[in-house]
């Protein structure tokens, strides 16, 4: 029987597709934005195998959970996954945290409390770790650890935070009811084979009664391996058939590291970072009116200015952004070696987010880019969810084997 999952704040489906690739079967995909829901539904209607049987709910998570809890599907959920709206904590937002009506962490905790999943994956922006949000970030984590210790009607979040802290440190906390072992990690997606420098916070919890000990998957890719591939062996350029005269010089800040790599005479232990060039292999230059490839049309008007200079071809892309700071502003661009720039097409951006080529983004260029800028890279979601799945299945295997061991 497949492991059962629920995806909250699913957006265009990046994390949910990663969860699906990890072997979970979705019993609920919740998203309030109609364009993102149209993207998922459109791909489901087209028969895309990752989303073909997703039960999509378009609306507020708080309304969905009331109805879902009355269904048989709500029983025995293995995983709740989701990325609550990040605008309250985003570096490009207004930084209002708990004072922002878009803060959906309380709703996320409520879903976990009511469904009591065996595990959860909660993802959010690096901005959540900013010093100005320190206390609220700690408060979020304590709520996820002890979701049954609810906020009282007359409590401020500060009062509730204090009660959670006291509860965690109490010597009488042996019987905590519903509680989770929580692991919080700041990760760079580039270190896991995503062709994009995208830093995100992951909060992963396992229900304590499972007695699962989990740590975040080890990094598999690194900058030093890329520089070795490019400037020690040259295999990167050979692989992409880049003539010597067209190979760029390394940045001055990388010279010392390259010299050390040459001196070691040994290849790095990790794989090379994936670059923009790697990601776009096989795609022609986008053209206006191109219908041969899904979502691969030229978007005119790109320009570079201080703070918005785009992504070099032979490094992982800068973080794709959603909203005014990424789309009209000029950050979601490719920078050629001659200094000229152009916008990434939707398809190119989808590749940078490791979305499958057959997955179509619904809406205008700016709308599709907003969906991609808010998404979790599919590959990163799959890596985290696969690790969670393996620990849940190992637990189940131990439970099956235990009676036979006692009998023996």
Provide keyphrases for this structure.
408 residues, 2 domains, 7-stranded mixed beta sheet, 13 helices, 34% helix, globular
Characterise this structure:
- This protein has 408 residues and is an alpha/beta fold.
- It folds into 2 domains: 3-219 and 377-402, Vaccinia Virus protein VP39 (Rossmann fold, 3-Layer(aba) Sandwich), CATH 3.40.50; 222-269, no CATH class.
- It is 34% helix and 14% strand.
- It contains 13 helices and 12 strands.
- It has helices spanning 14-21, 34-45, 61-68, 105-115, 134-145, 157-169, 223-231, 235-239, 255-264, 276-280, 346-352, 365-373, 378-407, and strands spanning 3-8, 24-31, 56-58, 79-82, 119-125, 180-188, 199-207, 221-222, 271-272, 311-312, 333-335, 341-343.
- The strands form 3 sheets. The protein has a 7-stranded mixed beta sheet, with helices on both faces.
- Strand 11 and strand 12 form a beta hairpin.
- It starts with a strand and ends with a helix.
């Amino acid at each position: 029987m497949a492991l059962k999952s629920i995806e909250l704040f699913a957006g265009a489906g990046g994390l949910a597709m990663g969860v699906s690739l990890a072997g979970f079967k979705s019993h609920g995909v919740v998203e309030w934005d109609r364009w993102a829901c149209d993207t998922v539904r459109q791909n489901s209607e087209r028969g895309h195998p990752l989303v073909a049987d997703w039960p999509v709910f378009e609306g507020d998570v708080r309304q969905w959970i009331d109805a879902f809890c009355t269904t048989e599907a709500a029983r025995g959920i293995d995983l709740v996954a989701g990325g609550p709206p990040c605008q309250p904590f985003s570096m490009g937002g207004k930084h209002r945290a708990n004072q922002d009506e878009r803060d959906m962490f309380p709703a996320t905790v409520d879903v976990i409390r009511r469904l009591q999943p065996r595990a959860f994956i909660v993802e959010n922006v690096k901005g959540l770790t900013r010093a100005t949000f320190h206390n609220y970030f700690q408060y979020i984590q304590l709520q996820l650890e002890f979701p049954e210790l609810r906020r009282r009607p007359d409590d401020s979040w500060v009062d509730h935070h204090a009660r959670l802290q006291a509860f965690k440190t109490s010597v009488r906390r042996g019987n905590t009811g519903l509680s989770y072992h929580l692991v919080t990690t700041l990760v760079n997606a580039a270190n896991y084979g995503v062709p994009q420098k995208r830093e995100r916070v992951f909060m992963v919890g396992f229900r304590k009664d499972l007695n699962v000990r989990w740590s975040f998957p080890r990094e598999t890719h690194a900058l030093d391996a890329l520089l070795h591939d490019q400037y020690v062996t040259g295999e990167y350029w050979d692989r992409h058939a880049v003539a010597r005269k067209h190979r760029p010089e390394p940045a001055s800040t990388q010279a010392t590291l390259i010299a050390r790599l040459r001196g070691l005479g040994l290849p790095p232990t990790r794989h090379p970072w994936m670059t923009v060039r790697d990601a776009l292999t096989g795609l022609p230059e986008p053209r206006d009116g191109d219908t041969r490839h899904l979502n691969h049309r030229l978007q005119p008007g790109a320009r570079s200015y201080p703070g918005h200079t785009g992504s070099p071809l032979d490094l992982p892309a800068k973080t794709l952004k959603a909203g005014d700071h990424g789309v009209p502003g000029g950050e979601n661009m490719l920078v050629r070696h001659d200094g000229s720039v152009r916008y990434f097409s939707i398809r190119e951006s989808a590749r940078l987010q490791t979305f499958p080529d057959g997955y179509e983004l619904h809406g205008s260029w700016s709308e599709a880019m907003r969906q991609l800028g808010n998404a979790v890279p599919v590959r990163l979601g799959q890596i985290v969810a696969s690790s969670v799945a393996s620990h849940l299945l190992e637990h189940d295997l131990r439970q099956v084997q235990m009676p036979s061991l006692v009998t023996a």
